Structures are given as C-alpha cells and as structure tokens.
Amino acid sequence: MKNTITWPQSSFIGFDRIWKELDQQITQGVSHSSAFPRHNIIKVDEEHSRIEIALAGYSLDDLSIEVSGETLTVSGSKDDSEVDYLHKGISYKSFTRKFRLSDSVVVKQADFVNGLLVVDLVSKVPEEKKTRSVNIGTGM
After folding, report:
1. What is the rounded distance in angstroms from the CA atom of residue 96 to the CA atom of residue 34?
2. Span 115-122, mean pLDDT?
3. Looking at the structure, do residues 68 and 97 belong to the same domain, yes or no?
4. Of 128 and 95, the one with more pLDDT
5. Is residue 10 part of a domain?
6. How far apart are CA 97 and CA 9, in angstroms?
7. Counting beta carbons within 10 angstroms of the beta carbon of residue 55, is it exposed (0 to 12), middle (13 to 18) or buried (19 or more)?
8. pTM of this prediction exceeds 0.90
9. 36 with 54: CB under 8 angstroms?
10. CATH no. for residue 59?
C-alpha cells in the first residue's frame, strides 16, 4: 500500500518537482544508513545556514564535497582494515550524505576542524524574486 499525503497543491504553482520529491521521501521512508554520519543544520541568521557533520577519525583525504545543480553531496571513505581492533566503537564506514538546496542557496565554504566538517551556506535571493509591488491596471 502506497503512503501518500494530499498536499494543498491548489495554492502552489510550479512546485511539481518538489511534490514528487516529498512523495518519494515519504513512500521510501528513511533508512538506517541515512543516520550516519550524524549532523546538525543550523540557521545562523536570515541569509546564512550551516551544516555540521560529525566525522571523528576521518582526515581531509578521506572526504569529498560536491555541488551539482541543487544537490550538495558529502562523501567519505576510510580504510582501517589493517588495524587490529580489540574493541571498535567508532565507525569509519563509507558514506554518502545528500542535501537538497533551494535554487537560491550557495555553498560559501567548507572547513574541517576538530572532527567536524562545517559547510557554510548563503541564501542569495535574486532581485526579481524579492518582494515588490505590482501596479494594477484598469483594462486589458
């Protein structure tokens, strides 16, 4: 049985792609693999956001960040197969984490400090999308 939510689509124009993506997320559910690595999304102010990803034990060489269209992809892979663990409580598994960005969000920079990958984002709203008044005419 397919889980679907009836969105108030009559009030939204041009959002067909977003409705499809939301429906796919709901029907596919969230897998356990998406829980790693742990992350925070922080609203710094109206124009700035930040993603913090906990990556203890990884190095810069183990990580990759890519922006393609409106998708930010963070990947990591660490080979610890030659280590003889007596106890392994810290996971170094390979991962790919994707974040969907709105068309006005730009990745400003990324830093890796003390086991945290910090990605700074800026929302740059174009002039034509900012609030403005529209004159009302009297005829066609």
Report:
1. 9
2. 96
3. yes
4. 95
5. yes
6. 29
7. buried
8. no
9. no
10. 2.60.40.790
pLDDT one-digit tens code per residue, 23-74: 776 766 554 446 889 999 999 998 999 999 999 989 999 999 999 988 999 9
How is residue 67 written in tokens? 């922006």
What residues does 98 pair with on adjacent strands?
73
**Same-domain check for residues 42 and 11:** no
Three-state DSSP at 67 gives strand
> Structure tokens of 128?
């034509």
Among 50, 30, 31, which Cα is nearest to 40's?
50
Domain of residue 21: give its range: 1-30
Beta strand spans in 7-140 (E): 39-43, 48-54, 63-68, 71-76, 95-100, 105-113, 116-123
Answer whether residue 113 is part of any domain.
yes
Residues 48 and 6 in one domain: no
